[in-house]
Each structure stands twice: as C-alpha cells, then as structure tokens.
Amino acid sequence: MDLAVILSVLDATIRLSTPLLLACLAGLYSERAGIFDIGLEGKMLAAAFAAGAVAAISGSAWLGLMAGMAVSLATTLLQGAAAITLKGNQLIAGVAINMLAAGMTTFLGQTWFSQGGRTPALSEGGRFSPITLPFANELAGVPILGPIYSELISGHYLLVYIAFIMVAVTTFVLYRTRFGLRLRAVGENPKAVDTAGISVVKQRYQAIIITGLLCGLAGAYFSIAQGSGFGNNMTAGKGYIALAALIFAKWKPVPAMFTCLLFGFLDALQIRLQNFELPVIGVVPVQAIQALPYVLTVVLLAGFIGKAVGPKAGGVPYTKER
Amino acid sequence: MSASRPLPRWADIALLPALNLLLAFLVSGLVVLLVGENPFHAIQVILYGAFGYGDGFGYTLYYATNFIFTGLAVAVAAHAGLFNIGGDGQAYVAGLGAVVVALALDQTHWLIAMPLAVIAAGAVGGFWAFVPGWLQAKRGSHVVITTIMFNFIASALMVYMVNRVLKPASTMAPESETIEVAGRVPQLRQFFSFFGYSPVNLSIVIAIAALIGVYILIWHTKFGYAMRVLGANPTASRYAGISNSKMIMITMTISGALAGMVAINEVMGVQNRLVLDFVAGAGFVGIAVALMGRNHPIGIALAAILFGALYQGGQELQFVIPGITREMIVVIQALVILFTGAMEGLFRPSLERAFMLLSPEQKSEAIAVSTAKPES
User: Is the pLDDT of residue B376 over 50?
Assistant: First the structure.
C-alpha cells in the first residue's frame, strides 16, 4: 500500500470513529455516575432523525444540530425519569428507548415525508461542510507531512474536531473539577455522596444531561455532516459499538478515544477489504472484521486481556434510607 | 415507602400491568392522533385484522408462537435474576441447527426431522446463551453486555454462513437450499381449512408444551426452586449449598434453547429455508412479552397473543390506513416495555395508598402515615 491508500484509510478511520467517540463519551458521563446506558443507540437515532428533518425544512445545519440535541436530551430525560426518579430498571429503560427511537423515527419519517422513512435531501446550507484548516492547501506539497496535515488533519466536519476536543474536556472535567469528583463518587458510592449533603438524584440528572447533549451531537453527525439527510436505522448499531468501546476503554476518556479510533479503523478496513483478495486467505471474510469489536470486548470482559470493572454503583437506583 | 403495605395479589399481577398497558396504549393513541389519524379506527382495524377472520387469526398465532418462545427465554433467565437480552442472536444461530437437520432429513418424514431439528436448534441456541452464562459465572462479565455483543457476533456469523457455506452456487439470493416437504413442519391449515393461507404450523404445539414445561420447571422442581432462590438472593442461595455458577450456566442454556425454537417456526414452518434476519426482532419482543406477562407462562401466553395480534393487525393497518405504517407497532411495543418495565413504579405508590384507604382497618393507620410523613 502506498501513502495515498494508507492516508485514505486513516482519513476514513477518523470520520467513522467520530460518532463512536461522541457516543462513547456520552455513555461515559452516564455510566460513571452510576446509570448503565444501553440506550445510546436510540438517542443517537432520534437525534439523527430530528437533525435531518429540521435541517431539511429550515435549510440550516445549525438549527438541525440544535434540534438533534434537544430531542436527544428529551429522550435522555425520559430515560432518566424511569431510571432515576422512578427507580426503574436502567437496562429495561435503555431497551425501551432504543425501540422507541427505532419505531418513531421510521414511523414519523414515513408519515411526514413519505420517502420510505428518509428525510428529504439537504440543501447546501442544511449540511455541515468540511473545514479546511489554515495553510492546508499551501502545505499539501510538502512531502509526507504535507499530505498528512492537509488530508488527515484538515478537511473534516466541525463535529469531528469537537469530538476530539471533548476528550480533553472530559478528562479535565472528570479528574480536575469538583463536579467530576462528585460525578465519579455517585457512580462508586452514592451513599457517601448523600452523607456529604450532595443530592445523588441531582448529580445523576446533571450527568445524563451531558450524555443527552453528546448523543445529540453524535446523531446529528450521521444525518447532517457525514450523510445528507436521515435514512432508516441510520446509526446501524453504532451505539452498541460505542458501548463496547466504553467498556473496552474501562470507562476512561483517553483510552475511549484510542478504542474508538481502533474500532473506526476496523470499520474503515472492512469497507476497503470488500471483495479484496488476499494471497493466502482468498476473499477476506469482512464479517470477521465486522464482528471483531464485539469479540474483542467479550474477550476483555472475560478478563483474558486485563480486567474491565465498571463503576461500583452502576445499575443500582439510589434509595435514600428513611 | 416503608410504611405502605404490599398490594393485594390480584392488584399486583393484574391491575398494575393493566394500568401500565392502558397508559402505553393511550400514548400510542396520542401518536396516532399526532399524525392526524383516528386512533379508534386504528384499533378497529387491528382487532379485525388480528381476530376477525381465519387467515388473520392464523397469522396472529404464527407471530405469537415466536413471541411465546422468546418471552419464555427472557422469563426463565429473569427468574434466576439474569437479563438475557440476546434472544435475537440465540434464535438466529439456532437457525443453523434447524436448517442442517431439516436439509439432511428432508427425504424422510417430518416426524423424524422435526424432533431432531428441535434438539439441534435447542442445542445451538442454548450454546449461544451458555457462553455468556459461562462468562458471567466463571469470569464475572455481565451477561447483559455479553449477550448484546453476541447478538452482533451472531449476525456477522450468520451472514458469513449463509453466503459462504449454505447458499447453493446456483442461486443469487442469500439463502440456503429449500427444504423438501418431508423436512417441513406441517401447517395447521392442512388440518383446519379455517386458517386459510396463514403460516401457523405445528410449532405452536411445541410452544404450548414449552409453556407447560417452564411452569413445571420453575414452580414444581427442585431446580426451579434453586433458580428462584438465586434470583431472589444470590448470597442466600450460596449459603443454601446451591452452586450459583452452575445454576447460571444451566439457566442461560435453557433460556437460549427456548429462544432457539423460533428457528423451528421460521425456518421449518414458514420460510422453508434459512434466510438472513429471519428472527426480525422477535427476541426483543420477548422482553416486552416477559415483562407484561410477569414472567409467568399464562401471562406470557396472553402477552404473546397480544403482540401477535398487534403485529398482524399492524400489517393490516398499513393497507387500510396508509398514514400509519407498520413501525407504529414497534412504537407500541417500546411504550409497553417503557411503562410496564422501566416505569413500573409510576402507579405503584398511589395504588398502594389507594388500597390502604380502601380497607377499613388500615384506614386510620394510613391517614396517620400520610399526615405524619407527606410524600417527598
């Protein structure tokens, strides 16, 4: 493979890992606060639909983005009402959210736009355009470093840069602020937090609000940045891969970034290897590469390569003693 | 909540689910209103489509057969305190067992092919659930996450198996060879012309047997008792001398085998070949069915028929009212899971208070409680 091919695979890697990364960080806030979230997929899907629909109607990508975030937030709060306030089963709440989003997006898409569940194609302003970083074109001629800068680092959508900036922000918030300390504390030992006079419920709601907003960004990325308009089941299980990545990264932001890049790379590789013939194996079974993120996560969970231990209070609704 | 008494049994198993279900339907009705259609007309269409004539009723039973299997799969695991979210994947890979046996024996007789296929599909589906069970029991990895992962691994595996192994070279479509008549499960319409052209088949007999079998297993065997002890309190079960890890592995295997029976209904009863995605989300419907049916076979049978009716009626719905697509059923299903599962606590406190006020001997106590401690 020459440099151009490698660069194009890596470029695809960045594009494909962005929604994973946003969703993974979203899940991180929720799960570190003690709320298991298997509803990432549903929230992304709902956001993708809302963003696509609003951007198509208004012609503004920014309005679309805001709509996506708002719908994702509303969905998250519904899930939160079940999982936090009503002390329901967090896993079942997540399943319900995923199913609700899958049904509602196709149903409303079909009834509102009558295009088989798709939203209308976006106009020029309805979609985010790639950003060219300063001097990208001028430096493209520089050997090796030039193409890396102009192809790989420059020329992505705004949301791509936001996703990677969010890794730094999340690291700072989680480990360097009072909010982050409390957030981690409600995920590990809510009783201690409660004893210190801090509301566990409030802290958990604050965490899932961030989750909702980040899922909104991830969802919008699908329909108004990477794609032009919403398509049926557009997120295609990416929310579950993000969940796998979160576990794989042991609920830590920087490892989450590398895991998402790895899973994104596998995805990019798989697309490139369709019908590609290798010398010994013959046609590469792309399904094997598709299944790899899940297999890796199971292997990790089984403790064969390190041990993934989640937040201690995860999955347990907090009940104050009376 | 410590002051309130538990609800009477009938309220707990019938009234509360009914209220939650009502709420789910109410919200679904609002969604229908939102798109400018008449919800009552929609209900009418669904009811007629599902029960009004032989074909429709046959389809309702055919869908219900799948949902009984997946509902039981979720319920059996739930009794042992496990959440098997992987029914979809288990049913999907079980298709391999079913199709291999059916193709091998389709020159004999269905009385030979069907029982062996049941064993094969059960074994493969059971294995697909055993591995997450084993990982939970021996390596401490959460069964919910692993079963989700196994759903995706199953789907990749099956695409590979169908395209590379099972597909005859002569066909383009991604599907296995067609099973000859002798390897198929007989249709009920062969015995009762009432069912018209609907695909309901003898798998429903297996479903009924499974309902009875699960009832006996859970409430009338030592194993079922141990399962319920494990589900109620893992520490207590360990002190009682029960091997928790063994229980988890066996329970998950039974659960997966039950989900695997979907393959008998679909592969040998309806499609007559292995097609991609034949499970079509039945595993997830099973979660709703088990929740609504309170993990009890009678409840599961009723809930499965309800969802079967929704699926069949929903098909009908999109022909009669073009404004409402099939996905409306997925929405209803999601709302049922949300309200009867995750938001189960919505009505419970107020219902408990209502019952306290209704019974005279508890009334004074209730008033004392409610005045002393306003609901926070």
Answer: no
